[in-house]
Amino acid sequence: MTDHTSRLPGFAQASREERIGILAERLGGNAEALQLFDNLGPIEGGLVDRLIENAIGVMPVPLGLATNMIVDGEEMLVPMATEESSVIAAVCNSAKRCRDTGGFFTSYSGSLTIAQVQLCGLSDPRNARAQILGRTDEIRALCDEVDPQLTSLGGGLREVDVRLVEARSGTMVIVHLVVDTLDAMGANAVNSMAERVAPVLAGWTGARPLLRILSNLADRRLTRARAVWPADQIGGPEVVEAMLLGAEFAEADPYRATTHNKGIMNGISAVVLATGNDTRAIESGAHAYAAHGGQYGPLTHWEKTAEGDLAGTIELPLSLGIVGGATRVHPVAQLSLKILGADSAEKLARITAAVGLAQNFGALRALATDGIQKGHMALHAQNVAIAAGAEGDEIEAVAAGLRAHSRVTEAEARKLLDDLRKD
Ligand SMILES: CC(C)(COP(=O)([O-])OP(=O)([O-])OC[C@H]1O[C@@H](n2cnc3c(N)ncnc32)[C@H](O)[C@@H]1OP(=O)([O-])[O-])[C@@H](O)C(=O)NCCC(=O)NCCSC(=O)C[C@@](C)(O)CC(=O)[O-]
Ligand SMILES: NC(=O)C1=CN([C@@H]2O[C@H](COP(=O)(O)OP(=O)(O)OC[C@H]3O[C@@H](n4cnc5c(N)ncnc54)[C@H](OP(=O)(O)O)[C@@H]3O)[C@@H](O)[C@H]2O)C=CC1
């Protein structure tokens, strides 16, 4: 590959077959390996090229169903797209253990999306702020013009906020357009509004308008979930105490909080991906929210109820849509939304938050009792066997050997495979 230039004019305009041909040439004519791209599965028929640029194929990620979930009184099956073993098992397990207390209960702050307009070069930022806030109705009219469809559905601009942000070059006037984007994540809608409003704000104030883009710190679009796990469903009072200490660790130490939140995002990102939403938007929002108080902390909190049971809560920004982006275009996303019965962005967010809480419960319980390796590596053993070269029936035979020895490593798998092949 290194002998070839990466400058490929016209690559974008080439057909997918032509692009694969160019790649095959670079791989020394090894077109066989590229047969992996023959099958595009559910996004056959040109969709792959419409979704992204320079498409050559697909990277399939398994889609599974989390069972046992009850969210706001409704029994549901939750589609999750993930490459990581034990993630879905953990949600099934956690959801099963809080069914007796009714499962998960959620709340939603509303679908408000923030767009930012950066205004620079003002010697009188406070004056500019007052001017802008005084003309909110005119700003609303401009925004409504940009997306009449959203306005007709009951959405549109709700608030204008103006922040003075101290930067190295001086005070910046940062205008927030707070827009109800209803069932859309809303990036395109609010970005268009910000671009429309920026030159007008510049005209009023004499500022230099610069960046105009939504903020992924979606703290006006918060979702909360809570659940109670009876002590006898999770191994008794000692396990409750151990899990509380584990949770406290995350509150006190950002090194632990980061891993704690990674576990939560195992579940959240899997639902986000399954429904065709923007995983990067959700992840950046969640981690920024976790650091909102100054120190990076956990997205969940755990307490002991008066009865000695374990109560968990989660709160995070979830800027999800059931229209817009890939949600309406990708057939698997459409099917996932149908399986969930998610007929609004609100419902999707509520379910997703519940999955995040369930995921955290599962990891915390495993960590506070047997350790993560027992459950996680037992389920991961088949992947390790495949990585070591096992095929067909050998895969489960090697995986069973790994589990029996409690040493789930590739070296151990190779040893077991060699022994198996000698027999
Ligand atoms: C693995 C389990 C669930 C076993 O847990 P267990 O208690 O041994 O499970 P069980 O065999 O007693 O079965 C109980 C229920 O669990 C579910 N279950 C059980 N096995 C399966 C399976 N194969 N497929 C689907 N569902 C499964 C299933 O619902 C089952 O009930 P049933 O429906 O059969 O009546 C548990 O040990 C666990 O939850 N472990 C945590 C796994 C985890 O968090 N994985 C994420 C990857 S590690 C990571 O990335 C994050 C981390 C850990 O670093 C985050 C952090 O540090 O906080
Ligand atoms: N920083 C970031 O996170 C950024 C993300 N993105 C990407 O933007 C995409 C999401 O943008 P988004 O604006 O949601 O998508 P779209 O613009 O594709 O869809 C939203 C539009 O759908 C129409 N619509 C129809 N029914 C409804 C309804 N019930 N509720 C709300 N809107 C409705 C609205 O008006 P109308 O019909 O008039 O369009 C609305 O503006 C994602 O792909 C994301 O990756 C893009 C830029 C930056």
UniProtKB/TrEMBL annotation:
UniProt-listed InterPro entries: HMG_CoA_Rdtase (IPR002202), HMG_CoA_Rdtase_bac-typ (IPR004553), HMG_CoA_Rdtase_cat_sf (IPR023074), HMG_CoA_Rdtase_CS (IPR023076), HMG_CoA_Rdtase_NAD(P)-bd_sf (IPR009023), HMG_CoA_Rdtase_sub-bd_dom_sf (IPR009029)
Membrane spanning stretches: none
Keyword presence, Oxidoreductase: yes
GO molecular-function terms, A-Z: hydroxymethylglutaryl-CoA reductase (NADH) activity; hydroxymethylglutaryl-CoA reductase (NADPH) activity
Reactions that this protein is recorded to catalyse: (R)-mevalonate + 2 NAD(+) + CoA = (3S)-3-hydroxy-3-methylglutaryl-CoA + 2 NADH + 2 H(+)
GO biological process: coenzyme A metabolic process
SUPFAM superfamilies, sorted: NAD-binding domain of HMG-CoA reductase, Substrate-binding domain of HMG-CoA reductase
Gene3D superfamilies referenced in this protein's UniProt entry, alphabetically: 1.10.8.660, 3-hydroxy-3-methylglutaryl-coenzyme A Reductase, Chain A, domain 2
Entry EC no(s): 1.1.1.88
Keyword field: NAD, Oxidoreductase
EC top class, as a word: oxidoreductase
Highest taxon listed in the record's lineage: Bacteria
Short name of any one Pfam family annotated for the protein: HMG-CoA_red
PROSITE patterns for the chain: HMG_COA_REDUCTASE_2, HMG_COA_REDUCTASE_3, HMG_COA_REDUCTASE_4
Pathway it works in: Metabolic intermediate metabolism; (R)-mevalonate degradation; (S)-3-hydroxy-3-methylglutaryl-CoA from (R)-mevalonate: step 1/1
Family: Belongs to the HMG-CoA reductase family.
NCBIfam families for this protein: HMG_CoA_R_NAD (TIGR00532)
Official protein name in the record: 3-hydroxy-3-methylglutaryl coenzyme A reductase
Gene source species: Sagittula stellata (strain ATCC 700073 / DSM 11524 / E-37)
Top-level taxonomy: Bacteria, Pseudomonadati, Pseudomonadota, Alphaproteobacteria, Rhodobacterales
